[in-house]
User: What shape does this take?
Amino acid sequence: MARIRFHFASLTLDAELLDTPTAKAIAAALPITASVLTWGDEVYFEIPVQAKREKDARAVITPGEIAYWPEGPAIAIGFGRTPISRGDETRLASPCNVFARALGDVKTLAAVTAGTQVKVYAASRRQ
Assistant: This one.
């Protein structure tokens, strides 16, 4: 499957797209530039993609799973607890479509602050 790259100021995160309608819609909209917001141990940002909630959408994700939040519409990358987490889970605001898996350590996103610009674009497997 295709790869995408998230470039946040001083760090990058590559991810592999899953074979889902949401992943295809996001890939078709690239490149995307946005301003990041944070919510606990989550970074998210609005994107110009409209996709419906998929049947397997969920609010609790595993760090490393990258999600699309239909109500945003936004990409949400959780890497730890959010204000509504129970225990050590990573709980997003509402059910989201998981569309990609990070190829690096998402915990590095703890260094990203609100207002940081992010660029999302197609990444070559050789990069």
Remarks:
- The mean pLDDT is 95.
